[in-house]
Amino acid sequence: GVVPLVLHVSTGTEKPYTYDGKTYIAHTPEGRFTFDREINGVRVSHLGELYRPKYFTSAGHAIHGSKSIPAYPASHGCVRLSNASIDFIWDAGLAPLGSPIWVHA
User: Fold this and answer.
1) Cα separation, 63 vs 1, whole angstroms
2) Strand pairing partners for 21?
């Protein structure tokens, strides 16, 4: 019943963006998920650079570090945290594979 930690994040803009000739909506899904894949390093994808991502959907949504965490939704759908915050999560073992994540607005 106690919130142990609050971290500043930036999520999907809910605006359209185009990749490879197709238009998508920058949406962060809400609900209960499980961390099912992770990369302890940098992943460069077609949408940008993800630092130490921990994925929670098969579509590629993840929490990950970034240099830009504005105080408004700015991502393509991932949950952006500061690099220091994702380092803390990794180093403290707070989100191991198989653990739940609850995403809500």
Assistant:
1) 23
2) none
